[in-house]
Amino acid sequence: MVATWSCPGFWTTPGKESIKPLDIPLSETRRLNLREIVLQPVAAHEEERFQALMEAHHYLGALPKIGHTLWYVATWHGEWLALLSFSAAAWKCAARDAWIGWGFRHQYDRLHLVANNSRFLILPEHPVPNLASRVLALSERRLVGDWRERFGYPLLLLETFVDPRRFQGTIYRAANWRYVGDTRGFRRTRTGYSAEPSAAKRVFVRPLHAQAQARLSCPVLDPQYRHGAPNIMLTAEQMVSLPDFFADIPDPRRGQGRLHPLPAVLAIAAGATLCGMRGYKAISLWAEDLGQKARARFRCCYRNRHYAVPSRTVIREVLTRVDPQALGHALQRWNAQQAAADEGLAIDGKTIGNAIDAEGRQTHILGVVGHQTQICHTKKKSAPCP
């Protein structure tokens, strides 16, 4: 007769620990050594099995592999024990943002340094004590290097969300994750965010660096953590104010068939460029992703109870035909208004080696950027006075 014992088993998502006593042979439990567990990325030929198990055992079901996502499987002598998914951070989370201490402008440019533990599943046939904590610890150690190798930049912080109607986040607390507050209950939809809040989630974070909080909230981000062009996030007030600065610019288009107002087209193009978009296609895709509230702030065309954004063709036509001097003056006035939000300015100048004018003088470029808003308030290209 084989001796048995009762052990709490749990299959989990962020904070999911559903207690279900199971009878496990004592001899089998002793054979599973936590130090022998191996965590490795899910191979391409294993992804179908990974998704099938998530769909079968996770209460939220499978999660598509969209954007920056890494899947892991914890194994013991080749047998699958647990599955994890890490993906891009939540766009907005007041509890997390308050704990970090960054402003919304910093947040938009630094979200790539945060990853979300979007799924965590302990397979139900493996209810081993301390297994969840061991798997989380292994994932933290491995994720730092894997994320940098795969996506080209490091991580400083992990986050996850726990539904208190089901779970308490016990396994995250045991793995030294920090509870920082609750969400407001709103969720993202295709048109922006839900109008009414649903159940709030508990927010847990896990710093991957001893100074993660300080580095994420510092006024100037360390160069090693920068990725891509510096971007900003526009506030609702900024979206509303942008069209006003383009109201006096002459419209170069014919009056016939003119659907989208010129101030709305220029405001969307300027907003997209400030948020890091480059080129007509990127600006158009950025505009299509705008929710109805954002489109209303930009004063887009309203037809059939829906705010429509200009197409790529319209954006290209306007930007290639509009008076560049008038456009530049309008942007400078908007920049001047926003400059009051900056407590400090960064000034940098460059001399272009082979750019020599007719009189033999080299061309100089001078730029002024606000520390808080990260807005380029002026950029001047000129030759020095003799």
Give a structural overview.
- The protein has 386 residues and is α+β, with helices and mostly antiparallel strands.
- 33% of the residues lie in helices and 25% in strands.
- The protein contains 13 helices and 16 strands.
- It has helices spanning 26-31, 47-57, 94-100, 104-110, 131-151, 170-174, 212-217, 236-245, 262-274, 280-288, 292-297, 312-321, 324-338, and strands at residues 4-9, 20-25, 38-41, 69-76, 79-88, 114-122, 157-162, 178-182, 188-189, 192-193, 202-207, 301-303, 306-308, 345-356, 362-370, 376-382.
- Strand 15 and strand 16 (376-382) form a beta hairpin.
- Helix 9 (262-274) packs across helix 10 (280-288) and helix 10 packs across helix 12 (312-321).
- The termini are far apart.
- Residues 1-30 have low confidence and may be disordered.
Quick take:
This protein is of the alpha+beta class and 386 residues long. 33% of the residues lie in helices and 25% in strands.
Number of helices: 13
Which stretches are low in confidence, meaning pLDDT under 50 for 5 or more residues running?
1-30
Could you state the order of secondary-structure elements as H and E?
A: EEHEHEEHHEHEHEEEEHHHHHEEHHEEE
Q: Which sequence of strands runs across the widest sheet?
A: 3-4-5-6-7-11-8
Instruction: Tell me the β content.
Output: 25-35%
User: Based on the structure, what is the oligomeric state of the protein chains?
Assistant: single chain
| Average pLDDT | 80
Helix/strand structural class:
alpha+beta
Residues in helix, % = 25-40%
User: How many DSSP-defined strands?
Assistant: 16
Radius of gyration: 26 Å
Q: Tell me about the largest β-sheet.
A: 7 strands, mixed
What overall geometry do the principal axes of the alpha carbons give? elongated
